[in-house]
Amino acid sequence: MEASQTQPLDYEGRELPERHEIVDGVLVKKASPSIQHAGLQRTLAVKLDPFHGPPGKSRPGGWWFGTEIDVQLASGQRYVPDMAGWRMGTFDANEFSERLTFDAVMVYSCPDWICEILSPSTASRDLGTKKRNYHLAGVGHYWVFDPTKRKLTVLHRGENAYRVILEAGARDTVQAEPFADIALDMSELFAMLP
To answer: Which residue has the higher pLDDT, 69 or 94?
Structure first.
């Protein structure tokens, strides 16, 4: 991905061009996901569905999820993570009721969980700048799927950096925080890949 502009930008409160992020003050176009990327993203969303919404008798609940949603971090970074999740108890109730209307395009509350699916054009940024800025913003859990290596890396926010708490391959079944109440069969998640 090439930066659309090299000078720092001030997009505070303004809508970005479609599929763009602000990374360290630079407007960067985000590539559209491949079919395999989209398949992995959708499969993960289905697997995490028991956590979406209020808790119930047969579901853990307690989370609100979004895919490809614009997120503004306190540092001025504006990202479009592949998936993001907010615990219902920590989600800004005012934002939930006032800003998340049908046509809302931006969430200002820091996610509790972010998942990025690496692609050749985004891997270095997802593992570098974005990882650093997610940590600084307070994102507690950061998952990284590497389709090429067929690997999931689960990171937990430590005081100074993220620390790896789990690495799983395509043949593993894992229970990964913050969603350890369910088992994730990695072979199902990577089934869409060639």
So the answer is: 69
Looking at CATH, the fold of the domain delimited by 32-189 is given as tt1808, chain A (3.90.1570)
Q: Is the pLDDT of residue 9 over 70?
A: no
Say which residue, 121 or 31, is predicted with more confidence: 121
For residue 180, how many other CB atoms are within 10 A of its CB?
A: 12
Confidence of residue 85 (pLDDT cuts 50, 70, 90): very high
For residues 191 and 169, what is the distance between their CA atoms, to the nearest angstrom?
12
Bridge partners (DSSP) of residue 154 are 143, 166
Confidence of residue 43 (pLDDT cuts 50, 70, 90): very high
Taking the domains of the chain in order of start, what are their residue ranges? 32-189
Amino acid at 170: A
- d(C-alpha 180, C-alpha 91), whole Å: 20
CA distance 143 to 173: 15
Which of 185 and 192 is assigned the larger pLDDT? 185
pTM attached to this predicted model: 0.84
Rounded Cα gap, residues 82 and 115, in angstroms: 6
Render 84-142 in DSSP notation, one character per residue: EEEETTTS-HHIIIII--TT--EE-SPPSEEEEE--TTTHHHHHTHHHHHHHHHT--EE
Long-range contacts of 92-101 (CB under 8 A, 24+ apart): 96/64
